[in-house]
Amino acid sequence: MKNPNHQGASGHAAPHESLATVAEQLNIWARELGFAAVGIADIDLAGAELGLEAWLASGFHGEMDYMARHGMKRARPAELVPGTLRVISVRMNYWPQAAAAQATLDEPAQAYVSRYALGRDYHKLMRNRLQKLAERIATEAPHGYRVFVDSAPVLEVELATRAGLGWRGKHTLTLDRSAGSFFFLGEIFTDLPLPVDVPTKPHCGSCRACLDACPTGAIVEPYRVDARRCISYLTIELKEAIPEDLRPLIGNRIYGCDDCQLVCPWNRFAQLTAEPDFAPRHGLDRASLVELFAWTEADFSTRMAGSAIYRIGFERWLRNLAVALGNAPTSPAIVAALRARADDPSELVREHVAWALKRHDAA
């Protein structure tokens, strides 16, 4: 396994006893690093390829060209990282102590930010922790490995299911009976033939709460999401104008959407994160739309540094806020905020502001 993170591979297979010890100790080591759970999966994901092909063929990935570009490599770990024999999957809770999510959604003049993005960006934190876990494994059984946190074509939900960390819910996210779905996933691809865990059986039953709650009908059927209608896609991944017919359905959600998770019965068991970096920053859990729309680009760059939100940039941040302001109840403050950006340098922002002002004029 030749790769940038290759660490101490001995060139000899570790003894079976050593591998069993690693598997037994893995849970302890992972929890010491702040992970809520860990499991080991094999790399035979052939059963997931048909579903992936059908999803791509339907165009449900929208502008996320990288989804199609990598093709079936996403379902073939050994093609992504030659030499891979197992994938170690981890969970890290992110549900923060913050203003009540539903109460914020019910107040249309407030800004709703997906709970995972209220604090610092999880990518670097989890990647560093996974690196430490891989190095800890290497002290017992030297191995070649690579760590991933949303940084490569990986079927993380499928791998988490096979590793016993949960099952794929009807909203396509990983669900666990004791923790719900408010957690991040990460992976270590390793060339160690570790003993694998038992895959998790699904426990959604006849429930369809997530399908019924989706504001835009993006969950087109159980276990299938049309990203082009998903508010998380529209406010984060989409670079161009948000389709006009979907704008009223976005409400006050300015970055991501949690509705399908908030209504899920299993999230009664969601666990608060113990990670300080995931706590809300800059009052994002209780900020008004007008307040955020008044930020300058320098304000955005300073306050969103180290946040997952930073990567969408100031222009899309304003675009999203303009849509939310267009959906808010008409008030002098909201109309004034929109008019102040009617001549914004960005054509994208100007168009969304004009749309929002028309809605208030009509009202």
From TrEMBL:
Report the top EC class in one word: oxidoreductase
Which positions bind tRNA? 239
Positions of [4Fe-4S] cluster 2 binding? 214, 230, 257, 260
Its cofactor is: [4Fe-4S] cluster; cob(II)alamin
Cellular component (GO) terms are: cytoplasm
Q: Which Pfam families match?
A: Fer4_16 (PF13484), QueG_DUF1730 (PF08331)
Matching InterPro entries, A to Z? 4Fe4S_Fe-S-bd (IPR017896), 4Fe4S_Fe_S_CS (IPR017900), QueG (IPR004453), QueG_DUF1730 (IPR013542)
EC number assigned by the record: 1.17.99.6
Residues the record lists as binding [4Fe-4S] cluster 1: 204, 207, 210, 264
Where is cob(II)alamin annotated to bind? 74, 150, 185, 232, 257-258
Q: How is the cofactor bound?
A: Binds 2 [4Fe-4S] clusters per monomer.
Pathway, per Swiss-Prot/TrEMBL? Answer: tRNA modification; tRNA-queuosine biosynthesis
Q: What GO terms in the biological process aspect are recorded for it?
A: tRNA queuosine(34) biosynthetic process
Keyword Protease on entry: no
**Domain 4Fe-4S ferredoxin-type intervals:** 192-224
Q: Which domain of life is it from?
A: Bacteria
Keyword vocabulary terms for this entry: 4Fe-4S, Cobalamin, Cobalt, Cytoplasm, Iron, Iron-sulfur, Metal-binding, Oxidoreductase, Queuosine biosynthesis, tRNA processing
The catalytic activity, as recorded, is: epoxyqueuosine(34) in tRNA + AH2 = queuosine(34) in tRNA + A + H2O
Q: Where in the cell is it found?
A: Cytoplasm
| Family membership noted in the UniProt record | Belongs to the QueG family.
Per the entry, what this protein does is:
Catalyzes the conversion of epoxyqueuosine (oQ) to queuosine (Q), which is a hypermodified base found in the wobble positions of tRNA(Asp), tRNA(Asn), tRNA(His) and tRNA(Tyr).
Q: What is known about its subunit structure?
A: Monomer.
UniProt protein name: Epoxyqueuosine reductase
